[in-house]
Every structure is written in C-alpha cells, then in structure tokens.
C-alpha cells in the first residue's frame, strides 16, 4: 500500500464543498477524500491534489482526511483537518415594484451575520450599487425603467467570511407608454390605439372600459385594434406596458366617444295634407341628426337638426323612404330602420258631372297618382248615394230630382286608405218631371194646361206635338196657354221643367184633339122649288156634318157623312140662316155659321098663251108676289123666244112668233145673280097655222093638246 498523504491545507469556498490540497505520494494512483460530520461522512476519489469533496452541508464543521490508493491497496488516513463550509447563498426573490425600483428579498441564511447585495445594469452601463444589511430584504430605487439589472447577493458569518453568492437578472418594469392616440373607425365600430414604444416593454395591453364593460387588447407592437365597440358609448382607453418584471402604470385614460346608435322609435305623422312630421327618440352622444327623405320618383331632400323631429313638404300619392342618422365628432350612426310612408292619393281633378236624367248623373274625373280605388259620394237631404269603382267614372242613380247634392270623389289606396280632404262639388239635380193635372179649352184654338208645380225656380215648357207641328208655351207657375192650335188636329201634350241644373224628363203625355175645322166653302143650290142641295169642302178632323136651314117658316136639317146634303121642305121666297156643325170621330163639334140663304121666288101658276092679232103671243101667269119680276121663255124648233114684263105685271108679249111649231113655255122668277131657275114647271103649246101664218095655239100636256 502507498504511503499516508499529508494535508497541506483544506478550505471551503462553496457552501456545499471543501477543497483539500496535499503532497503527492509516490506510487499512488488515486486518493480518497473523506469529510466526516459526526456519524455521517462523504467520500470522494480524485486523481491528484487538489481535490474537492462536494455534497456537503453549508456552515458545517467537517473532519477532512486523505488516503492514497494504488493496486496494493489504501493507505491509512492522513491526519485530519477541521474545516467549516461557508454560508449558503441567500435565495433571492426579486421583483420590480415600479418602473424605477427593484425589490430584493430572501430567507434567513443559517449562521449568517449579514448580507451583501449588489446591483448593476446587465449591459455594464452605469455604476454598481451595493448594500450591506442584516435584514432579509431591501429595495433599489432610482433605477432606469425597463432595464435589465444583474443582482448578486451573499451572506457572511460572524467572522466576516462571505458565503456563496447568488446572481439574479431582473428587469425593471416598463414606464407607462406616452403619446397615446386613438383612431376610431366608425364604419367597423373599432378603434386603433397607438403609442410610442416604451423601453424594456415586451408587450402592451390596451384597456377600453365603459362602465362595467371592459375590453382588452394585447400586443407586442406599438398599436392595437379594439373591435366590437358599441355605438353611443363613451370609452376610456388606457395602455399598460408589460415585461417580465411587471407592468407599468396605466396611461392617463383617453376618452373615446363612438358614433351614435341609429335613432329608434321613428314615427311619421302627416299633420295635414302636404306636411310630414318625422320624429324619433333622442340618441345618446348624438350631437345632431340628418333625416333623408327620398320619394319614389327619385327626388331626395334632407333636414339637419339638433332636435328630434323634422318637418317636410310632401305631395299626395307619393311613397317616401325615410331614414334618420345621428352624428357626432366620431361620425355617422349606422343605418337604422328605413321607413316608408305613402301619402294619401291625390284628390281627383278635372271633375265633371253630366246629368243623364233628372235622377242620374255621370261623374268623370282625371286619374290621380296613388289611387287604387275611387269612391263617389253624393250627399243630399234624402241621404247618401255611394259608388265605388277603379275606373275614373261613376254613374250615380236614384238621386232625388230638383235637389242640391254635395258630390265628392274620394281616392283610396291600399297603403294609406282614403284621402278625406277632397272638396265637394255643389251640384243640383235636374228638375222633377211635372205632372199635368188638367187640360181645358179656353177657345177654339186656345188650350190651357195646368200641372202640379214640384220644383223651385224652374221654367216649365208645355209642348203640343202632332202631325201639324209643334206648339209651345212656357211659365214659371202652374199653368200656361197654348195658342193658335190648328183645328181638326190630334196632339200629344207633355211638359218639362228647366232650370240651370238641367232639364227634367218629360211628363206623361196627355192626348189632345182640337175641334174639327169648319169647311171653308159651302154652296147652296136650289134643285127644286122645295129642295135645296148644300155642298161643302172637307173640314179637317170632321167625320160627320149636320147642316141646318132655319127660317120663321120652319127648319130643314140634314146629318151626313158626305160633304153634301139635299134639304127638302124648303119654302120658296124665304130667307134662311145657314149653319153647319162639323163633328169629329170622338164627338168634338165645331159650329160653323155661314152667310144667310134666300130660297128662290115661287114659280108662277096659271101660265097661259093667247094669240095676238099681229102674229104675237101673250104669255100670262098668276104671280105669287107682285114685287117679283118674271121672265117667260118659249123654246121651239124654229127658234127660242123670251119676254120680260115690267115689274108688277103678270104677262108679257112675244111678237112674230112662227106658227106651225111646238113650244116649251117656262115662266120663272128673275134672279139677281146666278143662272135662271130651271125647276119651274114647263108647259108645251102648239101654234098651228090656219090659212094664215099664225094658227091656233094648242096646249099640249102629257098626251093632250090644248087649243087656244
């Protein structure tokens, strides 16, 4: 075995080890170091001196021995040395309570009488700070924010022997960022927060708070986007810098007011036709409002106000699209509800009322914008007549005649209903049809017509219509007179009423027949001494005629369908009054009076012929009236002869009458006018020749001859 080593020195530099130095032993290949503490010991084999025993306890007294080793074995232990391990290093707990300070603390170290702590920037800049203390904590102040510092600490014992040291790198917390700026994106409702980078800051956190709501954004850059902000909110934005040492103080809060929310409770009211009132609820953080009103024809107007309502002019029949925006310095609110409002359709224009009859009126108008349906209403004292149609015309029937009506045409739409502001038109219906109560004859060609007046301020027109033409009369009362109606004519009489409102329907027609016309021409011809023929022209409208000859001596009368009549029992030489009655088919009679008629004088009687000495013939008769003159005519084959006596004589002479001939002798009264009477009796006489040129005068009757 090798020789026993001799320890030169033994010492402890670390709290868990002791280093031993000895002189080398020849032939030794290894050495065994032993540190004994009571019953426990620690052995370590090393190659050469010096050697270190590790795994020891700090501040503990050990007995140190060395043994040499070779292939032959181990030597005996060397004489021991007593060595105490140094103090253990304090275990530091370091943090940066502020951006310019570092707090260091540790637990108490066994057998330590005091501690030494030093601090220096890790980059070597600046001076080294050192503090000795018997406490277990201390604070370094006035440091640079966000800077990495190296901290070294150790404990020493009562002899001033330092123990193990402990090194710790600690960064001071960063300073609060500066120049914080907030850019608000109103469209996306997000904010971009930016700041100047802070020394030593590894990350940053942005806090956006509004009441109990807090939004955070973490970043390692110098800006951060905070999304999902609420409208009409005021946020307070602060930025905190962070590193491994801690956090800076938050920056002073920067106020961020977002855009206002879209206005709600929007209402549209049409205060009166043509005026729209748009109102809404007040919006938080809204400084002013803009209302946009766009009509369906593309025209848009707007209104700026700081109040919560706006007035707009509107037109009938339009649809308006209305949106309200709130504004502040941050910008415009989001688009809210877009309301549409359709105004009532326009009132119909170009209103025309045309009366078809007294109780029916046709109303027409021009189509208007926005109207889907029209209602025509006629309001009068008797009630209301309605007509609804999609067309721009309506016929109102069953109206009361001669009555005022307020006719109004209302327009309707499905969106807004009816326009009740349309003005009525005052229209009066045509007069009522009059009712003819009586037709009376005032004269031969004068007819009085009476009716029931059932209209106010109406002019009545009565018309007699027939083949002969038209006859009219007018009156504002209840009767009028038709003048100069032709006789013998049939008429249909009706009446109408006229007023500024129009003309009534005609009344029911009343038939009217005028008396037949008197014949214009009447001729009396005496056929015989007791028979007279009367003839006349046709009387229009007459079916039968009654002719009458009246005289004190009697009457002759004839009723006939013809236009002539023979009247017998006429007294000769008598003056008659002549009358004629024309009678129509219905019994109407016209009494016609004509010029008086005188029957011819009576024919003489006792006509005789006497021969005269000078070949003449005397005609003798008995006159019925001495005041009548007569004429005697003799007609024979040898000649015709006549004579007329002086007034008052009853004979006359015809000279140089040839004999030997038969003569027809007629003595008749002489009339003032007209032809000779031919109905007086004729007598035939034969004038014979007996030795001379004038012979006997013989009267010849039917078969007898009378000789005179």
Automatic annotation (TrEMBL):
<feature type="domain" description="Fibronectin type-III">
    <location>
        <begin position="1"/>
        <end position="88"/>
    </location>
</feature>
<dbReference type="InterPro" id="IPR013783">
    <property type="entry name" value="Ig-like_fold"/>
</dbReference>
<feature type="domain" description="Fibronectin type-III">
    <location>
        <begin position="430"/>
        <end position="517"/>
    </location>
</feature>
<dbReference type="InterPro" id="IPR036116">
    <property type="entry name" value="FN3_sf"/>
</dbReference>
<feature type="domain" description="Fibronectin type-III">
    <location>
        <begin position="176"/>
        <end position="261"/>
    </location>
</feature>
<dbReference type="Pfam" id="PF00041">
    <property type="entry name" value="fn3"/>
</dbReference>
<dbReference type="InterPro" id="IPR003961">
    <property type="entry name" value="FN3_dom"/>
</dbReference>
<feature type="domain" description="Fibronectin type-III">
    <location>
        <begin position="262"/>
        <end position="346"/>
    </location>
</feature>
<protein>
    <submittedName>
        <fullName>FNDC7 protein</fullName>
    </submittedName>
</protein>
<feature type="domain" description="Fibronectin type-III">
    <location>
        <begin position="89"/>
        <end position="175"/>
    </location>
</feature>
């Amino acid at each position: 075995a090798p020789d026993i080593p001799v320890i030169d020195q033994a010492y402890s530099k670390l709290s868990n080890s002791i280093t031993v130095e000895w002189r080398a032993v020849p032939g030794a290949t290894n050495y065994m170091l032993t540190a004994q503490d009571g019953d426990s010991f620690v052995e370590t084999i090393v190659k050469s001196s010096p050697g270190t025993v590790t795994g020891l306890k700090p501040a503990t007294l050990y007995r140190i021995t060395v043994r040499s080793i070779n292939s032959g074995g181990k030597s005996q232990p060397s004489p021991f040395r007593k060595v105490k391990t140094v103090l253990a290093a304090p275990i530091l707990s370091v943090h940066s309570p502020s951006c310019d300070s570092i707090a260091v603390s540790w637990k108490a170290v066994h057998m330590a009488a005091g501690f030494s702590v030093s601090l220096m920037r890790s980059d070597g800049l600046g001076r080294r700070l050192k503090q000795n203390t018997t406490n277990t904590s201390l604070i370094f102040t006035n440091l640079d924010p966000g800077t990495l510092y190296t901290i070294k600490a150790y404990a020493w014992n009562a002899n001033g022997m330092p123990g193990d040291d402990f090194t710790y790198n600690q960064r001071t917390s960063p300073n609060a960022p500066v120049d914080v700026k907030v850019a608000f994106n109103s469209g996306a409702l997000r904010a971009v927060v930016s700041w100047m980078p802070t020394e030593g800051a590894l990350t940053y956190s942005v806090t956006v708070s509004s009441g109990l709501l807090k939004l955070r954004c973490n970043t390692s850059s110098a800006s951060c986007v905070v999304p999902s902000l609420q409208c009409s909110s005021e946020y307070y934005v602060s930025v905190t810098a962070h590193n491994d040492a801690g956090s800076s103080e938050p920056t002073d809060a920067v106020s961020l007011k977002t855009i206002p929310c879209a206005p709600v409770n929007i209402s549209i009211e049409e205060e009166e036709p043509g005026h729209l009132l748009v109102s809404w609820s007040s919006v938080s953080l809204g400084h002013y409002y803009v209302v946009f009103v766009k009509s369906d024809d593309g025209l848009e107007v707007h209104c700026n106000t700081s109040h919560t309502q706006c007035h707009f002019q509107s037109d009938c029949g339009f649809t308006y699209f209305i949106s309200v925006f709130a504004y502040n310095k941050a910008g415009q609110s989001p688009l809210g509800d877009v309301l549409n409002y359709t105004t009532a359709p326009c009132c119909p224009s170009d209103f025309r009322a045309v009366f078809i009859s007294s109780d029916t009126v046709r109303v027409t108008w021009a189509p208007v914008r926005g109207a889907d349906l029209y209602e025509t209403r006629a309001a009068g004292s008797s009630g209301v007549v309605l007509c609804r149609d999609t067309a721009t015309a309506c016929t109102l029937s069953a109206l009361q005649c001669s009555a005022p009506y307020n006719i109004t045409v209302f327009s309707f739409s499905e969106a807004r209903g009816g326009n009740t502001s349309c003005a009525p038109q005052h229209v009066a219906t045509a007069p009522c049809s009059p009712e003819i109560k009586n037709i009376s004859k005032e004269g031969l060609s004068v007819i009085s017509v009476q009716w029931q007046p059932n209209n106010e301020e109406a002019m009545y027109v009565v018309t007699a219509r027939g083949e002969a033409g038209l006859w009219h009369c007018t009156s504002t009362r209840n009767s009028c007179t038709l003048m100069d109606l032709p006789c013998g004519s049939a008429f249909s009489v009706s009446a109408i009423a006229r007023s500024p409102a129009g003309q009534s329907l005609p009344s029911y027609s009343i038939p009217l027949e005028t008396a037949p016309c008197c014949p214009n021409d009447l001729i009396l011809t005496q056929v015989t001494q007791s028979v007279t023929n009367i003839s006349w022209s046709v009387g229009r409208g007459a079916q039968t005629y009654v002719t009458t000859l009246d005289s004190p001596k009697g009457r002759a009368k004839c009723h006939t369908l013809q236009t002539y009549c023979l009247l017998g029992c006429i007294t000769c030489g008598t003056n008659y009054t002549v009358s004629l009655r024309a009678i129509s088919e219905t019994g109407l009679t016209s009494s016609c009076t004509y010029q008086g008629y005188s029957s011819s004088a009576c024919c003489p009687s006792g006509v005789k012929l006497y021969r005269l000495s000078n070949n003449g013939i005397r005609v003798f008769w008995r006159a019925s009236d001495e005041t009548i003159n007569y004429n005697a005519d003799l007609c024979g084959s040898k000649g015709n002869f006549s004579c007329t006596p002086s007034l008052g004589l009853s004979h006359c002479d015809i000279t140089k009458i040839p004999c030997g001939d038969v003569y027809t002798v007629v003595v008749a009264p002489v009339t003032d006018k007209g032809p000779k009477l031919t109905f007086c009796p004729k007598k035939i006489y034969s004038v014979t020749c007996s030795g001379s040129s004038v012979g006997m005068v013989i009267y010849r009757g039917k078969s007898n001859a009378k000789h005179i």
